[in-house]
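Cross-posted from the bioinformatics board.
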Amino acid sequence: MDGLDDIVEEFLVESHENLDQLDSDLVALEQDPNSRERLSSIFRTIHTIKGTSGFLAFNRLEEVTHVGENMLSRLRDGELDLTPTRTSVLLQMVDTVRALLASIEASGGEGAVEVGGVVAAITAAMDDTPAAVAPVIPAPREGAVDAPAEVVAQAAEAPAKPAAKAPAKKTAARKPAAPRATPAAAAVAVPAEELPEQASAVVPQPVVEEPAASVPVADPVDAEVPAAGADGQARRGVADSTIRVDVDLLDELMLLVGELVLTRNQIVQNVARQTDTDLIRASQRLNLIASELQEGVMKTRMQPIDHIWSKLPRVVRDLGLQLKKSIRLEMEGRETELDKTLLEAVKDPLTHLVRNSVDHGIETPEDRRKAGKPVEGVLTLRARHESGQVVVEVADDGAGIDPGKLGAKAVQRGLVTPDALTRMSPSDILQLIFLPGFSTAAAVTNVSGRGVGMDVVKTNIESIGGTIEVESDAGAGTVCRLRIPLTLAIVPALTVECAGDRYAIPQISLQELVSLDAEKAANAVEEVGGAQVYRLRGELLPLVRLTDVLGLTSERHDGHVVIAVLRSEGRRFGLVVDRVINTEEIVVKAVGGQMKAIGLYSGATVLGDGTVALILDVQALARRALRAETNERQDSQKAAAHAAAASETDRQRMLLAAIGGGRRVAIPLDTVTRLEQVRTDSVEKVGNREVVQYRGAILPMVRLDRHLGAYGETDREVLEVIVYSDHGRSVAIVVEEILDIVDGEAAVRSDIDDLGLLGSAVLGDKVTELLDVRAAILAADPAFYSTRPTTLTGPSTPQGVPAPLLEV
Amino acid sequence: MTAPSSAPATSGQLATFRLDGDLYGIEVEHVQEVLRSQQLTRVPLAPTAVAGLINLRGQVVTAIELRERLGRPPRPAGTDAVVIVVRLHGEAVSLLVDSIADVVDVDAADFEAPPDTLEGQARELIRGAYKLRGQLLLALDVHKAVSA
């Protein structure tokens, strides 16, 4: 059904269903002409089709249903009696409607189906004037000629039938004119159930009487036979290819599949220990089939997110008008699918977020003009699949959230103490909008800002196992990001062990795993004011020991530390567990009220071996553990924020290299493009400079030991080279050995320096010289910076090294 | 005497079980099944009466230690508990008891309010006693018992 959009498709499915009902209703009505109920039902059906076709601009369909509706309404009101003539024209109308629908389904348009005849016939039947007889004849014929689909529709009918019945039909419709007409009595003899078919027969029938008609219809009997044959393998139409299924049934299926997946896990685990090849093969097949079944059943419940998005343009438009803002709504990834239940659950929060963005996010046109932005604000909805989750973003290019203002408001409302606020990072402050009773709107409008909102959104999203975070650039816009699991029933999870018990952590919160052996852990896990932290690539990660949270005693005594890095509400923390066991798909089981009240478990599951494991509620865990350690955490964050402010860069990481003579230099890592090894015999000379061919270019070299006056070994076969590139030029800095990469911010610095150095610092317990990269580069390539001299900030600040980095 | 107003004397069948030497009974219609001892998954930080979670054919069911609930000493080491699965308001909960006994027909005429000697915690949970021949059958208020 390419080219048909969803609305039309839905319309077709619905109409086909209704028409089938209509046929039997009409026939039944003939038996019991006074049944108001049936008349009303028929009237409603036609009315619905008429309404929708008008809406979809199917004019002929509208025309024919309109006149049918007129007649039906008069019948219903008792102004007309239902005569066989009238029944016939009504049935004829139903057929024409079918033909039109078939044409719409096949070609997307009404095609050449002619409706004038039917309309005239109905009008005539309404007025009881036989004058309209003539136009009736050509109309159905054309219908048959132009809408082959019509023929297919009647294909099931026995070829001989039309000939026998049609005259009867016509007797009703008009004076018997066919040469082969059977006595009118035949019509009476025809059982009522066959009447609908009769009605369709009337369409091709007149053709027989007019042999002059075009070729395809010259012999309706022949035309129908192949059609009947083709019917078997005819492609399924819209109405036949879909069925309506009760969502409860799907839920049931989903549950069963969940159980099956569990049992599968159990069997696969057991079979892994067996040696019987047949059993192993069978279990592999079971494994595959269960996975496919799971996928299939999940698919039955999947719907594109557009189902809920489609209502948002209206929301945005109305709100925009009301607030006198000009807003364009853009949608990306509207075909992204997720579980129907989840879709329903996300609907309200999403609408709320959109309203929020329109109301608070996007500024008024005047403000936007003042800010130098286009007057029209842009609200962007994005959806995509990302590692087994659906990520939905509501982004606006509005004023953004000012952490300062937000923080002040939070203090004013007593949600956070001023002292605590000063120690919060801007992104932490942003998350305050999710606190209950918070609204940033200066004025309470009837749109939003009544203080119920973001906390409810958050609760709703979390109740379906999702997460929400907000990012904002003051002046540039805000992004609300929802992460939603694909489905509720089956969740990928990490199983960990703690004090002899196993727990499951939903993958949605898991970022990475860090395993430290005893030796490393002793150094890497540090204490900040009594709280443990770990430096994860330069950022301090607060550590929470699961045993402490649960009040248990760890069974791990070898000093190893296993950290699950988890993310919750925009904050990261490391959960220390005894060991990581596995990742597996788990089926979430509800737990009793007592368990929920503990507030640490989101549910329980049955693992592959049949034991029950609790599922940790990461959000609750973070709230509980991080709040308990608030002071320490905030101290560490303050330190981090301070460091970040001082350096204006997230990563002040240094590459440590030995240059010979026991000297070590540190080179800011962000100036390093690549680390390479170069064979000594490939070094060539240009004048008195050393160069090396590298990726088809000539790379000037500087030997750092000579540059800094520390003479190392010269007879090495392979040179360790640090390549630095900028604006298409590269230089190679030769060192003796690459030692390590360290974080520079904690270093003690001193301004004791020497030629070619910027100072020294204690890095990794040793005094390390800070290389003046610019000087070293100039030594290799004096023209390196000459291409853009204006960007130089000063002679002592090498390119690529942020000036503040060099301060103490 | 604060007679348990919510649970008047009733005739009917009680499923009986033993706990620390006493005979208790719960309405037979609440009992879903009785199981031998099951593997329990402990729930840290849960109320002490929650013995853990059991896997009942794929369904996760909370197990309540009735000895703890009734203020009795812990079950002697080496003896396994018997699990009575009850279904209340559509939710399955299990009770850990010492051993299961018969289903007994009781007559409201034999019912008496809890003896005054019953104390503390237990008093809340016991609706009363049926005087059977030779012993007393304590009728447990199962709804209260599981709301640990």
